[in-house]
Structures are given as C-alpha cells and as structure tokens.
Write a structure and sequence with these properties.
By secondary structure, this protein is of the alpha+beta class. The chain is about 50% helix and about 10% strand. It is built from 16 helices and seven strands. β6 and β7 form a beta hairpin. α2 (about 30-40) crosses α8 and α8 packs across α9 (about 245-255).
Length: about 400
C-alpha cells in the first residue's frame, strides 16, 4: 500500500500537475522573491512561481516573448569575478568582511570552509543548517560558499542560494552578495545597489528562519557586504549595506501573499501551464488566474508584456501606474474614469470624482481659450487677458 498523502505531498503533486507532468520545476531565487514581494496582489505570479513554471518559456508560448536575460559575456564575467573574490580559501573576502563589518574582531588569518554538498535542495539546506550551527559553536571565522537556505513562501518552501555567508567569531552571521557592476570612487549605481539590497534582504529572512531553530538563536546581521569590482579594474572592493528597511518591507509583503494552495483550489479542473499545450488552452489557463499588472512589472516579470496587453484591452487603470491607481479609489477602468469626469456617473462627494470633474472643467476652459486665441489677431482683448497675469509675475519685463 502506498503511504497516505499528506497535505505537503498533496500540494507538491498539485503544483506538478499545474506545471506539467514532464516539465522540470524552475527553482525560485532571491531576485524572483524580491519581485514577488514587491507585487503581493498578483496571484498569477504567486502560483506560477510556486509551481516552478518557467515564465520566460511560458511567455514565448503565449506569443509575448520576454526581453529578460543576461548576456553570456556578463555571465562569464560575473563568474570570473566571484572566483577571484573567493580564491585562496576566501582570504580576500574574509579580509573585506573584517574591515567593513567587524574590525574589532581578530583578523581572519585562517578560516573554516565546511563542505555543503548533499543530495537535493532539501539535503543541502539541512547540511547548511548543520554547518551554521557548528560554526556558531566553534567561535571562529567560517565561510560558507553557496549555502542553501529554505524560506517559506505562501505555504511552499523556496530554496535560495546566496553567494556566501560568513560566520563571525562571536557567532553572528553575515550575508555576502557579489556583483559584477563597478564601484566607482566608493559608490555604485543606486538602482543596482537597491536591487542587490532587496535580494540580500530575502537571504537575511531565510537565515533568520534557520537561526530561530537554534538555542540560543545566533544574531543575523542586518548589514550585508556588497562586493564589486573597484573602478575599472577587476580588483574587489566592498561596502556595508544596511538592509533593515528592505528586510521589513519584504517580510511584510511575503506575509501578505495568498497561500498557494488557496489559489490552486480556485483554478478550473485540468488547468495546466505546460508550454506544449495548444495556444488557446494555454492562454485560458493563464487568464484563469487574476493578475495585478503595473508598469513596474516590465522590469521584474517575464510575463509583463502579456499582462500589459490584457490590461490595456480591458482598459484597466493599473496600466497607468500604481500611484494613479491608488488616487482613483473605486474607479478601476478608464471608461469609469472618463464617465465620472464628464459627470455621467460617480458620487460627487467622492474626492476622486470631484477632482476628475474639476480637471475636466479646467481642460475644457483651456481648450476654449486656445480656440479663442486662434481666432483673434495680436493685440486683441483675449491676448491682453492672457498677458496681464504674466506681467504681474515678470514685473512687466520683455516677453
């Protein structure tokens, strides 16, 4: 007799059915989790990421290919730089950690390098947790190269692999993020640094889950080490980045995610996102899951072009940006906004409706004035009426 199916195995089986029986799962990484946390209302991304669907392949099958991807040259350059940083047992990396984050500790003349190999992500995560516990008890510098961490995301485990984790002599843990973009005169591109900080915050959250299982719980440092090439060379330099804000935001957003099994239970029977399905069937499967598209998705999700087309077709105001969507309140489509602005629908006491109608009145007035100016000769009363306010500001100077 087969063993009874538990809730966890039943969910994994259901997610495998959604992904396709012969389609390998695409593992979630910290970059994808940071993007998912930035848009917690998107059930479509939550279920696709939870099921391990390769969204880039799915976008190609839907006819809306993604522009995502790293060039082979950039990939090779990044790997070469990371190997240089970790050479000689991570001596340079540990020197940077000591210099930037823990100068009061003894210099890392010799560090422990535990073996983290194991079978499968679950085995590697368990081996990493054991190595972290042993390193904290050893009270010595320890470098964990590409450890495996597990983080619960909407009821499903996500396995994450940071570049490195360093255990300090006092038993505290530090996340190390290695990037190939340059640090010029001690500063780097703010957008890239922000993305690295959000990614590191996910690793900090995962480390905190591991630390919570130990007694006493080791301290997970909220200042991570960002290592980049110095200026235009290939020499490593580093900067300490405080990720407390990113960690708080990411943790709060991940907690808001609808549980994956709840989303799966609402899908029609037979729903499958396998890319070899007929286009019409595949489109229906994707559209059966609600999305929360915003222009910011173009920089974070492989399905953004497909969702943008559908959002434009339905006239959703989210295509204009999250900030504008928040200002419009209960008005969710462009047609509703125009109808309210023209006084056809909407509650006049609603601040959003009142603002739209005032804006429509100002626009109509501006158009009437423009039409009058086009029908008048220079020096007319209309021109004088427009010039007088300008002279009051400029003091009657030359125009």
């Amino acid at each position: 007799m087969p063993p009874p199916r538990t809730r966890g195995t039943a969910l994994r089986h259901r997610l495998a059915e959604l992904r396709g029986p012969d389609v390998p799962a695409k593992a979630l990484d910290a970059r994808a989790l940071a993007a998912l946390a930035a848009n917690p209302g998107c059930k479509r991304r939550a279920i696709l990421d939870g099921a391990g669907v390769n969204k880039a392949v799915l976008a190609d099958a839907l006819g809306s290919p993604s522009a995502f991807g790293q060039s082979q040259f950039a990939f090779m350059r990044g790997n070469a730089f990371e190997a240089k940083v970790k050479a000689d047992g991570g001596a340079e990396l540990l020197r940077l950690v000591h210099e930037k984050l823990d100068p009061g500790a003894e210099p890392p003349t010799r560090a422990r390098l535990p073996e983290l190999a194991a079978i499968g992500p679950e085995g590697r995560a368990a081996r990493t947790a054991l190595a972290l516990r042993e390193a904290s008890e050893a009270a010595a510098w320890t470098l964990l190269d590409h450890p495996m961490l597990a983080l619960d995301v909407a009821g499903s485990p996500a396995f994450l692999e940071p570049d490195a984790v360093v255990v300090h002599p006092d038993g505290s843990w530090t996340v190390v993020e290695i990037k190939s973009f340059p640090m010029l005169d001690g500063s780097a591109d703010p957008a890239k640094v922000g993305a690295a900080a959000r990614q590191s915050a996910v690793y900090v959250l995962a480390l905190e889950e591991v630390a919570a299982q130990l007694k006493p719980a080791p301290r997970v440092r909220h200042r991570v080490l960002l290592v980049c090439p110095k200026d235009f060379s290939n020499l490593p330099t580093a900067s300490a980045v405080d990720v407390r804000k990113q960690r708080a935001v990411t943790g709060r957003q991940l907690a808001r995610l609808t549980r994956i099994e709840d989303i799966a239970d609402t899908l029609p029977e037979g729903t499958c996102f396998a890319p070899d399905r007929p286009p019409a069937e595949l489109t229906a499967a994707v559209e059966s899951v609600p999305a929360a598209y915003a222009p910011e998705c173009l920089a974070a999700c492989e399905l953004a072009f497909h969702c943008r087309d559908r959002s434009r077709t339905s006239g959703a105001v989210t295509t204009l940006g999250r900030s504008l969507r928040a200002e419009l309140g209960d008005l969710t489509t462009v047609d509703e906004v125009l109808s309210a602005a023209h006084g056809k629908t909407g509650d006049p006491d609603d601040p959003a409706v009142a603002a739209l109608r005032r804006a429509a009145e100002l626009r109509a007035e501006a158009l009437r004035d423009a039409a009058e100016r086009q029908g008048q000769v220079p020096g007319s009363a209309t021109e004088l009426r427009l010039v007088e306010p300008l002279e009051s500001v400029t003091g009657g100077g030359a125009r």
